[in-house]
Each structure stands twice: as C-alpha cells, then as structure tokens.
Design a protein that fits this description.
Number of helices: 13
Order of helices and strands: EEHEHHEHHEHEHEHEHHHHH
Number of domains: 2
Distance between the termini: 11 Å
Helix content: 40-55%
Largest sheet: 6 strands, parallel
CATH architecture of the largest domain: 3-Layer(aba) Sandwich
Number of strands: 8
CATH topology of the largest domain: Rossmann fold
Oligomer: single chain
C-alpha cells in the first residue's frame, strides 16, 4: 500500500504512473473486485458534500490523482504528489497491459453506440485486446440486475464504468461483492474520447494542466462545474493542514 494523503478529507494515493500500473497488475491477478477511483478537484469538492461518494472513495483499493488541482493542493499541503496520473492515460496503459497479457475488458456506460465505437478503436490501438462486452449507460434502476448478469456472464478482468461521478463509483461499490471482474474503474468521459465523439485537449493544454479550459471552450454549458476548481483551491488554502496524512 502506497502512502496516502488527504485533500479536504479525501484520500489520494501518492503514486506515479508506474506505481499505479504495478498495483493494477496485482489487482488483476487476485480474487475479488478492486475499485479504482480517479478524482479531480470537482469530485473532491463533491465528496465533501456527498457521504456516499466519500464512502466509495474511502473503500477504493486505489485512488489516483487525476486532476491538476490535486497536484497543486498537495504542494500547498506540504506533501507533494510526484505527478498527475490522468484517468484516461492510466486507462490506456492498463489496456496496453491487458492486451499483452490476454486479459479481458467490459465497457459499460456513455450514450448508446459510444461504448461500441470506443471498443473498436481500443482494439485497433492495442492489438490482441479482448473486449468481451459493451453496454450503454442509459437504464432504469430495475434493470441493474440484468446489467450485473450481463457483465458477470462476460467475466471480464477489467470493468470500465462510464456513468459519470458519483454514479459510476456508487454502482461499483453497490455490486462490489457480486461482480466477477478483478478490477473496476470509473472512467467518466473517457469512452467519449476513445469513440471520437469528444475531442481530447491538445498536448499544450494537457501539459499545462489546462484541460478544464479546453473543455469549457468545447462545452460552455459546463461553466457551473468549472467553478469547482477555484472553490477547491480556496478550500485547500484555508483547510486544516494537520489532517493530511493517512
């Protein structure tokens, strides 16, 4: 288990890409489902208001620092993270490993047709990758049992859940004891990017931690969500710095 820091009470593993991938490989080889959460600043702020989301993150086997705001916050808290580990890039590294090791993947979430398009692209980029099932994220609560059965019948090693936060984390936690997957990760909008329906920020924006700005340019309707970043930083600056480890 790596060291963990707490940012506004939310646990975050102090892992780089290599360390996160090493832990993922161990998850894939052991019994039970390991939940991987990829919080950004918005999710951290929301966890402070949503006990169910906070509980899901607390119970996750790995919490990787997806947002650049978490890296800045860790420096303010005097426990600097080595690097930002973006969810979409970590997913790519995980898929590459799964393709080479003959492991399998199930894609669950996003709009109808997105998971199928994402699967085709993933299999093109990572020859040998076995995607054993896809399912869109539009369903009624009474359909969850059928979805669980569909996932379990496919028996994937990795379950990617693209329902948005907190729905994706809560779905995994709810069925954690019944899922047959070895690892499950909430991937947010990653399937939309893989499918080509959403363009990822150019390298300049990613390198400088400005993906949020690029998303705002693409989707101005997200302005309310963008307000989470300055609010997050203010909360960190005025937080209790003594409660940052563990």
């Amino acid at each position: 288990m790596s060291d963990r820091i707490r940012i506004l009470g939310v646990p975050v593993d102090m892992v780089n890409y290599s360390e996160a991938l090493d832990r993922f490989k161990k998850f894939i080889e052991k019994d039970g489902v390991s939940l991987i959460v990829t919080p950004n600043s918005e999710i951290v702020v929301n966890a402070g208001k949503n006990p169910d989301l906070m509980n899901a993150i607390e119970q996750a086997e790995m919490v990787i620092p997806d947002g650049i705001g978490l890296v800045y916050a860790s420096k303010i808290l005097k426990h600097p993270l080595e690097e930002r580990v973006t969810g979409i890039d970590f997913l790519g590294k995980s898929l590459e490993y799964l393709a080479k090791s003959g492991k399998t993947v199930f894609l669950f979430g996003s709009k109808p047709g997105i998971a199928e398009k994402a699967a085709a692209k993933m299999e093109e980029v990572y020859p040998g990758l076995k995607i054993v099932g896809t399912r869109n994220g539009y369903f009624k609560p009474e359909e969850e049992e059928d979805i669980l059965a569909e996932i379990n019948n496919a028996d994937p090693d990795l379950l990617c859940v693209a329902l948005g936060s907190p729905k994706q984390e809560l779905f995994v936690l709810k069925y954690k004891d019944r899922l047959k997957a070895k690892a499950a990760i909430g991937v947010g909008g990653s399937l939309d990017v893989w499918s080509g329906d959403l363009k990822r920020a150019p390298e300049f924006y990613r390198k400088h931690g400005l993906e949020w700005l690029y998303r705002f340019i693409q989707e101005p309707s997200r302005y309310k969500r963008m307000a989470a970043l300055p609010l997050f930083m203010l909360k960190v600056v005025f937080s209790d710095k003594s409660q940052t480890k563990g």
